[in-house]
Design goal:
This protein is of the alpha/beta class and about 190 residues long. The protein is about 40% helix and about 20% strand. It has a 7-stranded mixed beta sheet with strand order 1-7-6-5-4-2-3, with helices on both faces. The longest helix is centred in the N-terminal third of the chain and has 16 residues, at about 5-20.
């Protein structure tokens, strides 16, 4: 009996990985919990490039990171990939992550995941491209297939379909990110 929840969790992670075209998937308590876990990959002084139309909770978490961790966020319109170039090419910037939401919430703006991922990997090979895929779910969009490094979904919304689930999922193909998972999840 005591193994049932863990078995179910691991099976769910396996299925999420399959439908996301990922090698690894991790379940957490919520979509915001997933984003918090992802942000634990950053360190003070790192910079994030993020869209200018993000879910309100994401914006509040970015503000918290700036105030308490010294992580700076540059908000740009992600509908045009070239808007990221000044930050990606600046010798004084310390861009460690690009956070995309596509389509965005609430304005439904679309980012070209493939074009932005290519730019980021060309100019900042160590930076991580993260996509909030909540509005599409892996059924309709699989950002890892377009060059993203890390994807998260709020299972509470479209992934569940019934709004009777409280969960978040993170998926990736990168071994280096997957290996830090136990350290990140147990550091809180």
């Amino acid at each position: 009996r005591t193994l049932f929840p863990y078995t179910t969790l691991f099976r769910s992670e396996h299925h999420i990985a399959k439908i996301s075209s990922a090698r690894h998937a991790f379940a957490v308590t919520s979509g915001m919990g997933a984003l918090d876990v992802i942000f634990r990959l950053l360190k003070p002084g790192d910079e994030i490039i993020a869209g200018n139309d993000l879910y309100g909770g994401s914006n509040r978490l970015l503000t918290y990171l700036k105030t308490h961790n010294g992580i700076i966020t540059h908000h740009v319109s992600t509908t045009e990939p070239s808007t990221l170039l000044p930050f990606l090419t600046s010798p004084t910037s310390n861009v460690a992550m690009v956070l995309l939401e596509t389509p965005t919430n609430p304005l439904l703006q679309i980012a070209d995941i493939a074009a932005i991922s290519a730019l980021v990997h060309q100019h900042r090979p160590d930076a991580i491209v993260v996509v909030d895929n909540t509005m599409m779910s892996p059924y309709l969009q699989r950002p890892l297939e377009h060059g993203a490094d890390l994807v998260y979904d709020s299972g509470t919304k479209y992934l569940s379909g019934h709004h009777d689930l409280m969960a978040g999922v993170i998926s990736c193909n990168r071994e280096d990110i997957a290996k830090v998972r136990p350290l990140i999840l147990h550091s809180s």
